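LAB NOTEBOOK - FOLDING QUEUE
OPERATOR: T.R.
BATCH SIZE: 2
PURPOSE: Compare the predicted structure-token outputs for two unrelated chains run back to back under identical settings.
PRIORITY: normal
REVIEWER: second-year student, initials M.K.

ITEM 1
FIELD SEQUENCE / FIELD STRUCTURE:
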Amino acid sequence: MRVFGRVTELGAEVAISIVTVQELFNGWVVRINSAREVEDVVRLYGKLSRTVALFGRVRVLDFDRKAGETFKQLLMDNPTLSKQRLQKDMRIAAIALANNAVMVTRNYRDFSQVSQLNIEDWSQHNVF
């Protein structure tokens, strides 16, 4: 509920990265394709539909040329960030940096490796 309240408070200032969109879609595809019961498929498609509707109300930040250059620079400056498991997170970080955006995440451990990234965790009590 804290996250929802913060999103409501900020309104149009909230955006989501295209990489996050990809991760969400990938997750729904796996869950839908592995569902065995029709009722589960119906429920999961409903959740996917609500996720798609959210993307219509929130600005999606692209992995554009500036983000790509930022990503390459991140990996050059800190080669440990090029680990396969960090690739999507570092793309998200590059998008945030390229847009001078605050990175909202519960994944402080990975994103804190990017020293210039401004990170907030809205799931914590002390975000306001």
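ITEM 2
FIELD SEQUENCE / FIELD STRUCTURE:
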Amino acid sequence: MVMPFLSLLFDKQKLELTKPVFSLSATWAIAFFNYQVSQTIVQQGKVQALLLVCVVVSVVFFFKNLFLYASKYVMSNIRNGVSAIYATKLSKLPIIARLFLERKRLPDDPFNG
């Protein structure tokens, strides 16, 4: 994902000086960011454009980790809640049904052949 922007910085690709027409797609987003990097190169120089690319990559990395942490934090509560619900339901079953369910989980059960 960073390679197209770096190719703009190191003169491997032509600068994109026309603003792309909006469409809700990934190609538009890449073309728009190429346009922004090209404008930054023209107006402020390559060092500032490289700084822009580094800041964008850092912000995206931060938000990726933030949302990954938040999803694991929320999902752990959900998993524990589901486990507790099934544990209470299992404890309310008669003893014969509980023994049958526990026996189904064993891989080397002699009764299931």
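REVIEWER COMMENT (ITEM 2): DSSP finds four helices and no strands in the chain.
FOLLOW-UP: none requested
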